[in-house]
Specification:
This is Xylose isomerase-like TIM barrel domain-containing protein. The chain has two helices and no strands. The chain has 60 residues and is mainly α. The radius of gyration is 12 Å and the shape is globular. 8% of the residues are buried.
Length: 60
């Protein structure tokens, strides 16, 4: 059985990798926008770059 957790992305969406690693998570699902809201601004290029760098490193 797999159990999930809601993790904060405070400080940047890439922080989900850091927090997941600290908890020993084997998988990660990220909601990059509020799923309850209809409008949101575009993702910032720096946020995308930071996220992709962490992703490519395997979250480490």
């Amino acid at each position: 059985m797999r159990i999930g957790a809601h993790l904060s992305v405070s400080g940047g969406k890439y922080m989900a990798f850091e927090r997941g690693r600290e908890l020993g998570c084997e998988a990660l699902q990220v909601f990059v926008r509020n799923v309850r809201g209809w409008s949101s601004g575009p993702l910032k290029p720096k946020d995308i770059d930071d996220f992709l760098k962490k992703y490519q490193k395997g979250g480490n």
